[in-house]
Amino acid sequence: MTATEQTMRDVFVHAMSAALDDDPRIALVLADISADRFTEVTERHPDRIHDVGIREQAMVGVAGGLALAGLRPVLHTITPFLVERPYEQLKLDLGHQGVGAVAVSTGASYDYPGAGRTHMAPADVALLDTLPGWAVHVPGHPDELRAALDTALAGDDRVYLRMSEQVNAEPRLGGPGWQVVRHGTRGVVAAVGPTLDPVLAATAGLDVTVLYTGEIRPFDAVGLRAAAGSARPDVVLVEPYLRGTSAHEVQRALADLPHRALSLGVRRDTELRNYGTAQQHTAAHGLDAAGIAAEVRGFLG
Predict the structure, then answer these.
(1) Domain-by-domain residue ranges, the chain?
(2) Suppose 195 and one of 46, 163, 191, 214 were both cysteines; which one would form an S-S bond, judging by CB atoms 3.0 to 4.6 Å apart?
(3) Nearest to 188 by CA among 175, 205, 206
(4) pTM score, two decimals?
């Protein structure tokens, strides 16, 4: 991404400001993060923008109350403070009450390594996967984020949008489910969100089908099965968060077929204790092109 292009966070701020102007049903609940970016729109709509400060549990509780009052709340802060810290409130104040909201995180698994482990949350999607009724979007490009946000704002369900500073060079706007990016015969490599570009680089010259999705929940079992075929398929799933998060979905999609599956993602067996850069974390977890290539080639033999 060049310096002149907008980040996902830029797109989110612009789209939310427009939505607040256009739709009186939309409300925004912040926990200090990005509050400075909404100063102007807050002056126009002080009754529908609430900054609770660094009180993330309260942020979710406020959102639940707004939803019960008929509004469409959007929650926004850094990933661990949106999913991990207020997990109980997501479970009770939204899920158990049966109301919807749009939760938009920034920082992904380790976009802010200089802030240390407190600002990293590779387990976010796995945690939300324990709660019923959540749609999960992992866009790989700012244009995909905008499309997902527009759809989410128009609904009433519970939606998680995972923003990241790691992006693919080009957007993929083919809609929900797995998109076939490249056809092959020796296996399937399925890339989620910003892992697509390194997957394409890693599999260059390999006779494999490459799939892509920016919406991992609900899981497109039909699309995966169609790509895998019926003759003992080999499937590699590459996710930009905790390794194996969607392994059970692959197993369910192919339950009646003899198959092999390999999950790649943020490693579970180690915790990196040096700050480094986001790119160094990616390499350490084997999610760069070289790491993915080594895993795929070893798996396919």
Answers:
(1) 8-162, 179-300
(2) 191
(3) 206
(4) 0.96
